[in-house]
């Protein structure tokens, strides 16, 4: 399992993913779950993945194959698609096709062949958009009312996002919010683990603005985690229950 989250804000987008993949308690590995495709200044597309590793890796491989295909067109290449909506459609169709190809073999072994993705980006002249793509290829879009999307083990990290994130949230506070959301998930679910990949795409940059990997033992992340724990304990102690 994994946990990925994306925030769509007035000033840009903030994306975070873990890297843990497990096929049992004694088979744990690290795989990147965040993939970025860009033509700096023209368009940027970030994809976060969760679910069956064979499905997600094959889907990303097919998307890359079409990008490199000299005969590809707007209907098949995400770097040629005219809009982010079309990008989401192409990725959804590819994910669904891969899932169907693999599903028979996976089901025979009683292994899940499901996968989902968050797709976020912007094309020059267009708006920033963010989509959650389901295993069947259909999708929903982040909106002003719900400016964040999650996939994987999302329930532990959702409460803080519900309480603090709005479209007006600053990029700095948004990074803090997703990291605390991840911290809550790391504490409650062993199937999610470090390192973490954090990325920022500022509005109208049409390129990856910043990206960093947070390794286990990162001092800044550990300090933030401890400060959050202390704040929660202090807040809890200040609340009184009337008889």
Keywords:
243 residues, alpha+beta, Glutamine Phosphoribosylpyrophosphate, subunit 1, domain 1, five-stranded antiparallel sheet, 5 helices, 28% strand
Show the helix and strand layout:
Blueprint: E1 3-8, E2 12-17, E3 20-22, E4 28-30, E5 34-39, E6 43-51, H1 53-68, H2 84-108, E7 115-123, E8 129-133, E9 139-141, E10 148-152, H3 158-164, H4 171-188, E11 196-202, E12 210-214, H5 219-238
Antiparallel strand pairs: 1-2, 1-10, 2-11, 3-4, 5-6, 6-7, 7-8, 8-9, 11-12
Measured between the Cα atoms of the first and last residue, the distance is: 43 Å
Q: Structural class, please? A: alpha+beta
What portion of the residues fall into strands of 2 or more residues? Answer: 25-35%
What is the averaged pLDDT score? Answer: 93
In CATH, the homologous superfamily goes by the name Aminohydrolase, N-terminal nucleophile (Ntn) domain
Poorly predicted runs: none
DSSP helical segment count: 5
How many E strands? 12
Order of strands across the main sheet? 10-1-2-11-12
Characterise this structure.
The chain is an alpha+beta fold and 243 residues long. It has a single domain (3-238), classed as Glutamine Phosphoribosylpyrophosphate, subunit 1, domain 1 (4-Layer Sandwich). Helix content is 35%, strand content 28%. The strands form three sheets. The chain has a five-stranded antiparallel beta sheet with strand order 10-1-2-11-12, covered by helices on one side. Strands 5-6-7-8-9 form a five-stranded antiparallel beta sheet. A two-stranded antiparallel ribbon has the order 3-4. Helix 1 crosses helix 2 and helix 3 (158-164) packs antiparallel against helix 4 (171-188). It is globular. The model has no long low-confidence stretch (mean pLDDT 93).
